[in-house]
Amino acid sequence: MFAAGLAPKGSNDPYALRRAAIANLDILLPRLADRITARGGHVFFAATADDAIAYTLEVVQQYDIRRVVKGKSMVTEEI
Question: pLDDT by residue for the chain (79 residues), tens digit each?
């Protein structure tokens, strides 16, 4: 994840690693999106909470989804 020298030097501290990841989201998120897309996945970057909700509802309706499981514990609080 930090192959481009983005990790804090000599740190195994998970909080320092988290801070480094957050500080480099502009680099890491496009990289992650590229890897997901290359494996056939889909990525949507929502500019607002309303955009995220609208996209989610669109996918649910398009595929007639009956159950949704969130993968991140804070996602509903963030939206």
Answer: 555 566 666 678 888 888 888 999 999 999 999 999 999 999 999 999 899 999 999 999 999 999 988 776 666 677 7
Question: Which of 31, 8, 10 is closest to 19 using CA atoms?
Answer: 8
Rg (CA), the chain: 16
Secondary structure in 3-state letters for the chain: CCCCCCCCCCCCCHHHHHHHHHHCHHHHHHHHHHHHHHCCCCCCCCCCHHHHHHHHHHHHHHCCCCCCCCCCCCHHHHC
Question: Which residue has 């890491």 as its token pair?
Answer: 28
Q: What are phi and psi of 24, to 5 degrees?
A: -115, 25
For residue 23, the model assigns a pLDDT of: 93
Hey, what are 77's tokens? 């609080």
